[in-house]
Amino acid sequence: MKISVLSIGGTICMLKDESGGVSPKLNAKALVDGIGMTDNISIETKSILSIPSPSLKFENVLEIIRIAKDEVKNRSDGIVITQGTDTLEESAFLLSLLWDEEVPIVVTGAMKNPSEIGSDGSSNLYQSILVASSNLSRKRGVLVVFNHVIYLPRFLHKSNSFSLETFKSINGGNIGYIYEKQVKYIAPIYRYKIYKIPNKMDKKIAIIPTCLSGDDYFLDNLSGFHGLIINGFSAGHVSFDFIEKVKSLNLNIPCIVTTRTGSGPTAYNTYSYKGSEIDLQKNGFIMGGFFDCMKARIFLTLLLSIGFNKEDILKEFNSYYMYF
Questions:
Q1: Which helix (H) or strand (E) holds 228?
Q2: How far apart are CA 243 and CA 237, in angstroms?
Q3: Of 88, 226, 249, 269, which has the most beta carbons under 10 Å away?
Q4: In 3-state terms, what secondary structure has residue 179?
Q5: Is 181 exposed, middle or buried (0-12, 13-18, 19+ CB in 10 A)?
């Protein structure tokens, strides 16, 4: 059994520097050497990047996919990616949209750096290697492993800035666990639609927040954007001022409406007042359903990058969270 561990930075590889804070220091080999893995698993390591995850870019994720595919060609049975948690839910989601191999990708990281008491990085990496090497993980696409839990990227949300239990499954449950060195799944394999890997993802998508007495302020500088995500009130609503202003702009770009609540879908046919979901759809807006604003931005960027038109984009947003 051969597993490839690809490191790209994050807290899991950080140590104290001259400032007294921590920064990326450890490479992939050092991370693996720290867990003393045996269990008849051969591990190959590659250090791809060494950066904190807020500085990851779409092009980095596309390059990681290419490297991971090369590892599969070289007979790797599983891929583990270690990265920072700040953008892990975003990069894992993008990977899940593009990974078409039976071999699983498992993404993990740490909330505590290796110099802290109770650091979780070694445990998370060990569990991730177990998951990546399990035959039960094949055909499950991209998975996230953290604190003994297996997550799907489509449900993943970082919920706390410091807690070891920061990751939660929103609008869907955890799909598995790792206990006593055993990988245990409690959910079937989901049906995935995998998209073409674009040469680049350079479309500009704005995210507009809604807020009391101020959501229309953010509509003043949208020239040059290819799409718009509106993080709407409640089930996907905006103010009277917002809908009037956005209509006056005559935007000829896809506009997706999500909910700022953190869970639950947008509505489609409940409210009919000006600025409600019925009114927004009449004016050409696309309701985001179960998408949060960050995943909606990534999804829309990808769809535009591979040439989907507005009608195609509507169909993809309406069907993505239909699992079976």
A1: strand 227-232
A2: 9
A3: 88
A4: strand
A5: exposed
